[in-house]
Write the structure tokens for this entry.
Amino acid sequence: MMRKDAGERREISGSGGKASDKRTMSQAAEAGVAAREVGRFRSSEEASVMEVERRGSSCVRAKGVNQQRGDGSKDQTTPTEPEKETRVERLQQTLYRQAKKNPKWRAWTLYGDLQCPQILEEAMRRVISNRGAAGVDGLSVEDLIAEPNLRDRLMEKIKQELKERTYRASPIRRVFIPKADGKQRPLGIPTVKDRVIQTAMMIIIEPIFEADFHDESYAYRPKRRAQEAVQSIKEGILSGRHEIVDADLSGYFDSIQHQELMKLIAKRISDKTILKLIKGWLRAKIVEEEPKSGKKVSRSNKRGTPQGGVISPLLANLYLDGLDKAVNFGKKFKAKMVRYADDFVILCHKTKAEPIMENLKLWLGKRGLQLNEKKTRIIEYGKEPLDFLGFRIQQRKSPKTGRNYPHCEPSPRSCQKIREAIREETSWQTQWKEETEVIESVNRRVQGWINYFHYGNSTNVFSKIEWQMRERMRRWLWKRHKKTYAQYGSRYSNEELNDRHMEESKCLKIKSPPKAECGKTARSV
């Protein structure tokens, strides 16, 4: 039994080294206890302790100190960690390093980690901070905040169901939200209990798959932003790839095949209990409310992952990870693919876009996916612009150097949305509100827009938005105080609008972030 257990430990660690013959009596006793406890659930941290070789590479969440005790030469001083890591962080680093070190490694002791009180508490904290609507049971996050005892009872129930293995996924409440094109997007809302357990699952399995994901995938991943995807597109254009396939998938989240997805998950996870939980979330029944009668209808879910579930973004990225690697690692077309969820672009050299499009349709068809023909098109850079993630990228000539460069600024559609938001906040229907309330509301919506688009060459666009914001606010004040004659005077000038309130947060003023994280920074307006 001890030999069998040692063989399993070597297989999990991906290490073929032999243990040293100089083992202390306490270590031998611990090994004997471990051999007698084969079949008991262990956490991944315990599995890492039993490894023969030390893990090497660091996780994306590492604190910056990769060297541990005993590493390096004897004369070298080992630096101390700047901060004390939590058990959740240590577990994530352990899983990430092991998955990065061995591409064929499969995690097999995750269910014990899922029951860890620290992980469940962290999951509960994240669910409460994210808020969100109630599921089919009617329990909302606001109820947990209002009644701390209710939160404690829910946590005890989760722990008990996981320990006794009686937990089952609840049906998903489906609602529809309007889209910009007039259609409706289905949104699945799990119960609060399901969201807590899904978040705990995310904490455990996300580092494993993060070790495998391609670098050109940017959506729903830690420490990645949409602006980095736009920057990568600009770099692809500067490399000479001037034919662009602007692609969009039709109903992607609702078209994912469960069987194919579970095969991808099983390549990295062998814990059958974990696989059973994920499969239960995928196949959970969907409860909809008929718009006319208001009657609730329940139906089965044979494909797709609910867009709104905590674990759905990770599974959606996993399903398209093969496409990321097939395009970016392909030597035939030497193309570059940049993906953000189900929106992606493929940059290639001239005359390569058409064959790439044909191969793309074949790859997607084998996995039950299809392109949105209305939104998918081939763009020739220099002749027409590319709109991606709210930005517009087009060729312009620099007035200083006379050279062409990829100019990036908010797209006209994005500008129209913020203009409509400003008009909504300063319409005649809001004239009953206090001035400070309206100014704060306008600043909040505009500042969020500014924070996202503070990238590239956005200075001129910011100036136009600021001018319109002041004009709309000025007219709102004229009408509220019934002083229309002020249109022809200096009443409510820019200086007066800024100095009207002493607190800076209440001034009607665009405040650009101090520094953009990637690309060229736009100057303050």
Q: What stands out?
A: The mean pLDDT is 81. The radius of gyration is 27 Å. The longest strand covers residues 172-178.
